[in-house]
Design a protein that fits this description.
The protein has 407 residues and is mainly α. The protein contains 16 helices and 6 strands. Strand 5 and strand 6 form a beta hairpin.
């Protein structure tokens, strides 16, 4: 009987040991549980939105800086100290820039390229380059460029109105004016300057989406973006040299990933492989040496210098955090996205980003800027809401979009 009890006790101990090992394997000590990181980043977001750094960042006027700010739409407002993401002072700034549209509207109520080109147009200033003596514009490069920026400011202003329970319909009529102009420009062969990293097609499509209009209302531009997914008879992509932007979003992948995922021609492989150039099998092969780096964008911007490190500052191939943002807006769970690099190791790209964040005296992660803010929002959103409707800075603001409560 004693031997029998001893055997039973041993069996129980063995089973307990097996269970302990199994549980340990399921939750390794060197990994932060997803929900814990989510809560930690919520605290980081709350602190950042209340910081002087954010107060300065949100006042930036360039298109480049405004786009990451659009991710704040996912946060439930009135989130800290009874203040708002956008204040009354911000609203006045928005209205000042939104009203500049009047300077390029003619007597018939239409947007006029002729008025834009006139001396003294408030949408830009001119300067003469000391290098080549040519005259260049500083500011918005065309009405197409300004209309895209206008659509961003319009949504920021709508976010402010929603948070403060105010109404202002004074800018709504301009939406029709812009739509009519873009419909005409869509089929024009004329050149229209745009923000760095964008082109006419992507600017038009993004503007329409931001104004709650169907981007297919500009069929030439819409189809031009879709054409990047064209393949030959063997299935190889035939078009890839876009307009890369190494310090922010690029118009084509921003528009396609945000608006065209439901199209039959859309290709996630194309987006993952840097416009069909870089092999998605993670093998360096010849692509590492033989392709022009300026032709490569999207997810393989995740690492500075192709795998040496992931950075929170501008590096040799730009700000790699945009690779994470591209991944999320294409519906990819970036917590599971890994990259192999030259040292033979495989890294989780999301964790590599987390590792770049400093901590404050309370042990909370510190978000350095609005791009860190955008990545943190995407992570929290994906954790809590899933990716059936991926987070994107593109589209018309609605209070229904605000789904993340920071507590």
């Amino acid at each position: 009987m004693k031997n029998r009890n001893t055997k039973i006790l041993c069996l129980v101990l063995v089973l307990a040991l097996v269970l302990t090992i199994a549980l340990a394997a399921c939750n390794p000590k060197d990994e932060t549980p997803t929900d814990a990181l989510c809560q930690s980043l919520k605290t980081s977001l709350k602190n950042y939105l209340a910081s002087e750094e954010f107060a300065t960042a949100k006042a930036a006027a360039t298109t480049q800086d405004r786009v990451p700010l659009m991710y704040s739409r996912y946060i439930v407002d009135n989130i800290y100290s009874n203040t708002h993401i956008y204040t009354d002072a911000d609203a006045e700034s928005f209205k000042t820039n939104l009203r500049k549209i009047d300077s390029v509207i003619d007597g018939r109520g239409n947007l006029s390229d002729e008025l834009f080109e006139k001396d003294g147009c408030p949408l830009y200033t001119t300067y003469v380059s000391e290098w080549d003596g040519k005259v260049y514009k500083s500011g918005w490069q065309s009405i197409v460029d300004y209309a895209y920026s206008w659509s961003l400011m319009y949504n920021q202003y709508r976010q402010y109105l929603s948070a403060t329970n105010k109404t202002d319909e004074s800018f709504d009529d301009y939406v029709v004016t812009i739509a009519n102009y873009l419909k005409t420009v869509d089929s024009s062969d004329s050149y229209y300057g745009t923000a760095y990293g964008y082109d006419k097609a992507s600017s038009i499509v993004l503007t329409l989406a931001n104004l709650a209009l169907d981007p297919k209302n500009a069929p030439v531009s819409y189809n031009a973006l879709l054409s990047y997914y064209d393949t030959d008879d063997e299935g190889n992509f035939t078009k890839y040299v876009g307009n890369p932007n190494w310090i922010g979003f690029t118009g084509r992948p921003l528009a396609c990933g945000s608006l065209m995922r439901g199209e039959k021609k859309y290709s996630l492989v194309y987006e993952k492989t840097m416009q069909g150039i870089y092999p998605y099998d993670d093998s360096k092969a010849d692509a590492y040496y033989n392709y022009n780096i300026d032709d490569m964008i999207n997810l393989d911007r995740l690492f500075d210098d192709y795998g040496k490190k992931i950075v929170s500052q501008y590096g040799s191939i730009g700000d790699s955090r945009y690779g994470i943002l591209y991944g999320y807006l294409n519906g990819i769970d970036m917590t599971k996205y890994t990259k192999s690099v030259d040292d033979g190791k495989t890294y989780n790209v999301l964790q590599k980003w987390v590792d770049t964040l400093e901590k404050d005296s309370d042990g909370n992660y510190v978000l350095a800027d609005v791009v860190d803010m955008a990545v943190a929002i995407c992570y929290v959103y994906a954790t809590e809401m899933g990716l059936n409707v991926p987070p994107t800075p593109v589209g018309f603001y609605s209070s229904a979009t605000s789904v993340i409560s920071l507590g």
